[in-house]
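FW: tagging you since you asked about this chain on Friday. Here's the raw sequence from the shared folder, copied in full. Didn't touch anything.
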Amino acid sequence: MTVSEANNQYERIIDLVLHYNMRDAFVKLSYLIQQNGFGLAFDKLNELESNYRYMLKFKLEGVTDPDRDKVYSDLRRRAIELADEAINT
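HL: got it, structure written out here
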């Protein structure tokens, strides 16, 4: 992956996160991590994806969570931080 392609991928990830499209952001982030050989980041990404899936599951089950917005904001922040790490590796 060229530097230009990596930067474009990074910008797309950030755009997806900012527009609340976490599923697609995770897919693109996984690809960026894979291309940059940042293996430890896969564990962080898997944790983010698991947390996101549980949050969605609980929401679909009707579980009331007063901290849901806070959790979602934290997931988005951590995804952006992970993208920063992946692009700067």
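FW: The chain has a mean pLDDT of 93.
HL: agreed, and The CA atoms of residues 3 and 16 lie 20 Å apart.
FW: great, closing this out.
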